[in-house]
Design brief:
63% of the residues lie in helices and 0% in strands. It is mostly helical and 121 residues long. Helix 1 runs parallel beside helix 3 and helix 5 crosses helix 6.
Length: 121
């Protein structure tokens, strides 16, 4: 999907990984999301319920729903996959491919530009 629904779906997917939403009791998390999604879709089947998911994720993880600087450094593989459309992996055997000292800052600048262009991540 394009537009608002597409952005909402990407936000949910990326932030679920960044905030490690499924790291504890994943079956329970999926059940809770499913129940909330069913209710939200009954109310408005045309809109992806990102606001409801943001609130759920914030409460579940006890953190704000936003990309923090430490997220860029904590999981560079994940961030590079997001930026590169899921095709780039860090190859520690090939230092020419990835410089761990400069990639997080480059990635941070890229994500900041994208969030300014497209709204929140």
């Amino acid at each position: 999907p394009d537009g608002y629904n597409g952005r909402g779906m990407r936000q949910y997917l990326y932030m679920a990984f960044v905030l490690r939403l499924f790291s504890r009791a994943p079956d329970s998390v999926l059940d809770q999301i499913h129940d909330r999604m069913v209710e939200a879709v009954k109310k408005d089947p045309q809109v992806f319920p990102i606001e409801m998911l943001r609130e759920f994720m914030s409460q579940r993880q006890k953190t704000l729903f936003r990309l923090e600087e430490h997220h860029l450094n904590d999981d560079a593989d994940l961030m590079l996959n997001i930026v590169d459309g899921g095709i780039l992996q860090i190859d520690p055997a090939d230092p020419e491919l990835f410089d761990p000292h400069t990639a997080p800052s480059c990635l941070g600048r890229y994500l900041c530009r994208q969030s300014q262009i497209h709204g929140r991540l």
